[in-house]
């Protein structure tokens, strides 16, 4: 039985690397306004996420959730694969 997730952060992004075992790198894009000029800029942040079954492939769109630290840099886990890379085209 899964425990309630509470107020854990959830992000959606694109898998940019699946070279590691049980780990994927997910790029999450966000739009932020420049504080002085007001122009909208695209910011990309990369998260290392835990993928237990090694199901994710490069180009997949996934949803990740914050979790306890699993390693030095890995603090997210893949909840679900929203869309496969081959379905995007």
Strand order, largest beta sheet: 1-2-3-5-4
**How is the main sheet built?**
5 strands, mixed, barrel
* Alpha-beta content class: mainly beta
DSSP summary, beta strand count: 5
CATH architecture: Beta Barrel
Mean residue pLDDT: 92
For the terminal residues, how far apart are their CA atoms? 37 Å
What would CATH call the class?
A: Mainly Beta
Return Rg in Å. 15 Å
- N-to-C SSE string, H for helix and E for strand: EEEEEH
Strand content: over 45%
CATH superfamily: Nucleic acid-binding proteins
What is the overall number of helices?
Answer: 1
**Total separate domains:** 1
Helical proportion, percent range: under 10%
CATH-assigned fold name:
OB fold (Dihydrolipoamide Acetyltransferase, E2P)
């Amino acid at each position: 039985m899964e425990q309630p997730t509470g107020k854990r952060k959830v992000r959606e992004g694109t898998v940019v690397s699946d070279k590691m075992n049980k780990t994927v790198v997910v790029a999450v894009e966000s739009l932020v306004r420049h504080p002085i000029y007001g122009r909208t800029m695209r910011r990309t942040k990369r998260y290392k996420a835990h993928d237990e079954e090694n199901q994710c492939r490069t180009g997949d769109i996934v949803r990740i959730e914050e979790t306890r630290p699993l390693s030095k840099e890995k603090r997210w886990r893949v909840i679900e694969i929203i869309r496969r890379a081959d379905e995007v085209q």
